[in-house]
Each structure stands twice: as C-alpha cells, then as structure tokens.
C-alpha cells in the first residue's frame, strides 16, 4: 500500500491521495481557492484598460490554504514543485524565470533541463533555498506538514489544490496575475473554455437513456469517484462514471464492476502492474469474470496518457477531448 501511495502521488501531482482530508477541510480549502481567484482578478488588474493587461504591485493574494502572500513585484526566480504548475508556467512564457522543478517534471521538454528540487510530496528544502526563489509553487500533492515547514523557513510558498475544472482554470489566471502574464493566462483559459464548450455542447445532445456507463482505472486496482476532476471530465464528456457513488480515489471492487457492467473502460496508457508485470490493459481484460463486461466484449477500451489525464494543468482539456472521443467515437470524430 505504501508503495502504491508513493506511485499515485507521483503520477497525480494531484493527483490526490495526498489531498484526501476531511470533508470540511477540503471544502474550506476549495472555498479559499475560489475566493482567492476572484480577489486576484479584481485587485491584480490594471486600473486602465490596455491591450496588454499589467499587474499592479504590490499585490496581495490568498492561496488554497487561505494564507495571504504579498508580492512587491513580478517574481523573477520561480521554483515549481508540481508538474502541473510547471506546465502552466511554461504555457505562460515563463520558462526563463524557472529555477527549479520537481524530479517528475517532464513537459514541455524544456522542463527536463531545469534543476531538480526533489519530489512532489516532500521537495528538498536545501535545493529550493539554494535557488533563492521569490516564488515557490506547491501542488496538490504537497503535504500540509511540508507546507508549514517551508513557511517556517520563510519560503514564499503559494499552494494550489484544484479539485474541479474551474479550480484549474482559476489557478492559471491566478498564476498569470502573480507573474504579470495575465494576458497570456486569459488567452489560454479562453481556449480551454472553447475546448470544454465544444465537448459539452455535443454531449448535451445525448439522451439520458443513451448515456454510456464508464469505468476508469488510472492505476492498477484503483478508480475515482465523485469530487475529483477526473470524475468531472467523464461527466462533461457525457458519460456516467460507475464509481460516482464513491468519494475520491478508491481501491476497486471487482465484483461490483462486473455488476455495474460498464460500456466503456478508460485506463492509463503505458502503465504496468508491479505485482503481475502485466500492462494495465491486459490486467483489466484478464480478470476473472470480466469477460462478461460489455466494454470488454465490444473491445471498448481506450488508454489515455497518464500525464495528460492526471495533471490539473493546461492539457486537461486535451484529456477531456480524448475521453469524449473514446466514449462516443461516432459523436466526437477525431
């Protein structure tokens, strides 16, 4: 179990075994993040309308934990401990201001050239301090005790904790405002919203009785229920997540999945089960009794790149499009 949790946290960046807390704590953090987005948009924009929006400093924002941070100027030395946020920074044209990334940052390819500062759950504080950052971004996988430890070291830590697609979009806007790249951030979010609109408008034409049941296995033996953005992606694509009666990330019940009889199975492409050594698709199709499942009988299994599907960043709408194409190939033509 410990080995799995470490793998899961690495893969999700949020993903998000590490984000699992009490319902009240989670709701409070979500509320703080969404409120912060509104405050940043209102307080961080230029007073005069210009073709290129400029952030007015000093700028005070709240992160997902509710902590206020004040920036006297746009950050010049940024350390990102989360692949999702690293992707956001590069998408905003801030590659030259990134002085450290997590050991698992691999996209875009320029991220591979940046100094490494350790894992996503417990980054190396010595490496981060040595980078002399004026902004450290912690992702959804960073543990609360590490957040407090870094703040005790006076590191300028901005923590994100996206649970919904709107949270992801808000994070992009917030980071854009903090780094004085809000014009690019708004353009990126606008394009992502167009991607979402394309999928959801098509999905809205599907009759309720025609909606397909979907099972997703993002890691061997694990699926996702409601309250997470991966479940939301299935719903946006017009599918019905058979695990929507559960909360968060859950070990699977093989008998229940047979009973639920999904029409479509989605899984993380390129994943190999540590115990059996089997590719995830083979593991799924070879389980006892699963040959009765409609998705397997109809060969309706699709692998999606894990980094696209699991990282709450700019490519999350690519995952939405790929899911929609896999669930309703006739409706969503590639």
Automatic annotation (TrEMBL):
Domain of life (superkingdom): Bacteria
Keyword Transcription among record annotations: no
Feature: compositional bias, Basic and acidic residues: 23-32
Fe/B12 periplasmic-binding domain ranges (all copies): 77-331
Presence of the UniProt keyword Coiled coil in the record: yes
Keyword annotations of the record: Coiled coil, Signal
CDD domains: YvrC
Region of interest (Disordered), residue spans: 23-56
PANTHER family: MOLYBDATE-BINDING PROTEIN MOLA, VITAMIN B12-BINDING PROTEIN
Annotated family: Belongs to the bacterial solute-binding protein 8 family.
Sections of the chain in a coiled coil: 182-209
Signal peptide location: 1-19
Species of the source: Cytobacillus solani
Protein name: ABC transporter substrate-binding protein
Alphabetical list of Pfam families matching this protein: Peripla_BP_2
Comp. bias intervals (Low complexity): 37-48
GO biological process: cellular response to iron ion
